[in-house]
Design a protein that fits this description.
By secondary structure, this protein is mainly α. The chain has helices at 2-11, 21-29, 34-49, 52-178, 186-200, 205-212, 218-343, 345-349. Bound molecules: 2-acetamido-2-deoxy-beta-D-glucopyranose (2 copies). Residues 316, 319-320, 323 line the site of one 2-acetamido-2-deoxy-beta-D-glucopyranose. Residues 56-146, 271-305 form a coiled coil.
């Protein structure tokens, strides 16, 4: 702008003149720089051209133009600085929000981690309980099998004893009924004693009774029969008792197994529920961690953007100040030139 005006000054000036005192004064007064030296050169040519009023007019116009430029540059500067400030404030608000979100997410991650730890130990405990209950069931089944085996053995042995005793009983009864004299043969007696000892043991009262009787007479036989009948009754009672006891034992076994199954089913459900909750929590954790990573990245970018914007703002402001000071200097030169020419107007018009 000012260069164009200087050019106009140059164009309306044709003659070349020697330097007037006013211009000498001006050259002396103005700081020496390119703009000022061009200004003085142009003024010199213009003044030499003799159209002093036109020179004032043009100088005034240059002053007005530059003042206008300064004003509009100031306005532009204010508005751009405000825009920079607004950007920075917005970015800072974003940053604060991001920091908030990071905190919230961190808290959430902490909660989820706590849940996962609790759920994991719950899961471990449930699995241990399941293992224990399975072992317990196995033990119950083993015990029951052993018990059945042992009862069966006892019942079989009891049955065999019964059969033997019944046979001896029958033989003794038959002997008592049919024989009044010599009674039992010695060999038969020995065989009976051997059988009794085998079935009831060497020291069983019946064995002793038969063994110790000097005479195996009818009276002894009758006593033996009576004793055998008592023993048979007692064995039968025992057999019956064991059978009944086994019915109760079987019921007890079934109810234990039932309890175990119910407990296992419940533990199984708990296990499934815990595992699925755990899986969900682990998924939540992954999502929250991913979110936090993204937030941290955004935070970093925003921080950087704030820095960049601050640097741009400062750079713009310092450029503006340097331009403004240049413009102020030019305006002062123009005003000084105007004043000095005005002070010397009469001399210049001659
Ligand atoms: C009856 O059954 C119970 C439980 O099974 C057992 O402990 C007990 O020894 C049994 N009694 C007899 C006499 O078999
Ligand atoms: C300063 O002046 C230079 C040269 O005229 C210009 O390119 C730049 O945009 C100006 N900067 C400001 C901030 O006014």
């Amino acid at each position: 702008m000012s260069h164009k005006s200087l050019l106009v000054l140059l164009l309306i000036t044709i003659a070349i003149a020697t330097e007037s005192p006013a211009l000498q004064q001006l050259r002396h007064k103005l700081e020496s720089n390119e703009y000022n030296s061009q200004l003085v050169d142009m003024l010199e040519l213009s003044v030499a051209g003799g159209q002093i009023d036109r020179v004032f007019e043009l100088l005034q116009k240059m002053i007005d133009d530059l003042t206008g430029q300064i004003n509009s540059a100031n306005l532009e500067h204010a508005s751009r600085m405000a825009a920079f400030q607004l950007s920075i404030e917005q970015l800072e608000a974003n940053l604060a929000q991001l920091q908030n979100e990071v905190q919230t997410t961190n808290r959430k991650i902490g909660e989820i981690t706590q849940s996962i730890s609790t759920l994991t130990s719950t899961s471990v405990s449930i699995k241990k309980q399941l293992e224990t209950i399975n072992q317990k069931e196995e033990q119950i089944r083993n015990n029951r099998a052993k018990e059945i085996q042992s009862v069966e053995t006892k019942q079989t042995a009891g049955q065999k004893t019964l059969e033997t005793l019944e046979e001896i009983h029958d033989r003794l009864v038959k002997a008592v009924l049919s024989n009044q004299g010599s009674f039992l043969e010695e060999t038969e007696k020995q065989e009976i004693i051997k059988q009794v000892k085998q079935e009831l043991g060497l020291t069983h009262p019946l064995a002793l009774l038969l063994d110790l009787s000097a005479k195996f007479d009818e009276l002894t036989a009758k006593k033996a029969i009576e004793l055998i009948e008592q023993i048979i009754a007692s064995i039968k009672e025992g057999q019956q008792f064991r059978e009944q006891n086994q019915t109760a034992a079987e019921q007890n076994f079934n109810s234990l197994i039932n309890e175990v199954s119910i407990l296992r089913e419940k533990l199984g459900q708990d296990n499934q529920k815990t595992s699925s909750t755990l899986k969900n929590k682990q998924n939540d954790l992954k999502i929250a961690q991913r979110r936090n990573k993204q937030l941290s990245l955004n935070q970093e970018n925003t921080q950087q953007l704030i820095e960049t914007t601050r640097v741009q703002k400062d750079l713009y402001d310092s450029n503006f100040r340097s331009n403004a000071s240049k413009r102020e200097g030019q305006l002062n030169s123009l005003k000084t030139a105007f004043q000095i020419l005005r002070d010397n107007e009469q001399a210049l018009k001659k």
